[in-house]
Amino acid sequence: MQFVLIARDGKDENALERRMAVREKHLENAKRMFDEGSLLYASGLLDENGKMIGSVMTVDFPSKEVMEEEWLKREPYITGDVWKDIEIMKTAVAPFCLK
After folding, report:
1. How far is 29 from 36, CA to CA, in rounded Å?
2. pLDDT digits (tens, 9 = 90+) for 11-51
3. pTM for this structure?
4. Quick one: which of 29, 30, 90, 97 has the most CB atoms within 10 Å?
5. Could you tell me the strand order of the sheet in which 2-9 lies?
């Protein structure tokens, strides 16, 4: 089952600092997920000045519960208090977009 996650960072003055503190762990985890096939696409959200303010990730897991257990409970941007507003929706990626 495919899901799209839209996550917005906190808006406080330390938000970017928290993001950067765990960014390498987040990217390592995302690369592992991509190699395993559970991450289909990822992108940073930018404000009008090009500053990172969130993320969009399209993932593939057997269920939302499995996604929460295998990914979200360990996601550095969640455990590192970066993402403050997270929206998750079921999605269907066009077959020609999959590797």
Report:
1. 11
2. 999 999 999 999 999 999 999 999 999 999 999 999 999 99
3. 0.91
4. 30
5. 39-46, 52-60, 2-9, 83-91
Cβ neighbours of residue 77 closer than 8 Å, sequence gap 6 or more: 7, 19, 22, 26, 55, 83
- Answer yes or no: are the C-beta atoms of 5 and 61 closer than 8 Å: no
Rounded CA Rg of the chain: 13
3-class state of residue 89 by DSSP: strand
Q: 98 pLDDT band (50/70/90 cuts)?
A: confident
Question: Does residue 47 contact residue 85 with C-beta atoms inside 8 Å?
Answer: no
